[in-house]
Amino acid sequence: MQPRNMSMSGVVDLAAVKAAGEAKQKAEEARARARTAGEQGGAGAAPDASVSSLVTEVDEADFEREVLQRSTEVPVVIDFWAEWCEPCKQLGPLLERLVREYAGRLVLAKIDVDRNQMLFQQFGVQGIPAVFAVVAGQALPLFQGAAPEQQVREVLDQLVQVAEQRFGLTGVSVGGGEGEQPAVPEVPEDPALAAAHSALDAGDLGGAVQAYRNVLAGDPGNMEAKLGLAQAELLQRVQGLDAARVRKEAADAPADVRAQIRAADLDLVGGHVEDAFGRLVEAVRRTAGEDRDAARVHLLELFEVVGSDDPRVVAARGALARVLF
């Protein structure tokens, strides 16, 4: 089975600008508590990780501790596997070796799906091997199926980069292992993309839009730049809007597509993802011709902001299809 393209949508979901900031703050608070506990010699101190602890078998009983809590310190890669799965036997050792090479920038949690059906279902796994990540408590799909080493490396490089830039997660120090500690792979940072992120974080929306466009001019397939551009343009559209007035206009004129689009943008920025999607699906249902097409196209643009693998996008695509066909 060929691996799906990696999606970072769960990390920068739009609750995006909002949720990512909140998750980063929670991760920083968790690290601060761990440091304080360590200074006081408390039982809650977070010790350095040994090389052997970078790869662990996880079940439903210890999932919260080994994955959710740990993800506030370091990105946790999850390998869903089973003993009878031949592709799993190819991918598993590769993931273990690569994670150890990252020397604490990532850790690997291996979950046997036969013994952990609840986790298998909660993550919506469609087939194995399936690889997910949890970053600052947020889950996101990486790929499904056995993959070539170079492609897996590229996915892990991107995960490390996003975890550090968006959430401030630099990993855990590694000690206590046998032999020489492996070198941490260098993740090259695109200066143009870093400048775009900085402009977005600083609230310079015009600068961010232009910077992301500059990145895409040279690299049209850069998914991180596409997502950043979509976020920046969305924030630009809602900047200066009177939220109360926009919502009243949308409520008073349900067939006014422009009013519904403005309200949907506000919904999305406020973290009300389902409301934004539902509003535009309804606008598509109510209208025809150019208005219907405008609502449909804008809804598709919002799907890109949130990410195609997000279950809310999947559900809304189904709702849109039912309305259209």
TrEMBL record:
Disordered: annotated span: 27-50
Report the residue ranges that make up the Thioredoxin domain in this protein.
Answer: 40-161
Q: Which GO terms are recorded in the biological process aspect for this UniProt protein?
A: cell redox homeostasis; response to stress
**What superkingdom heads the lineage?**
Bacteria
Q: Which CDD domains match?
A: ybbN
**Annotated InterPro entries:** Thioredoxin-like_sf, Thioredoxin_CS, Thioredoxin_domain, TPR-like_helical_dom_sf
Q: What is this protein called?
A: Co-chaperone YbbN
Q: Which organism is it from?
A: Streptomyces carminius
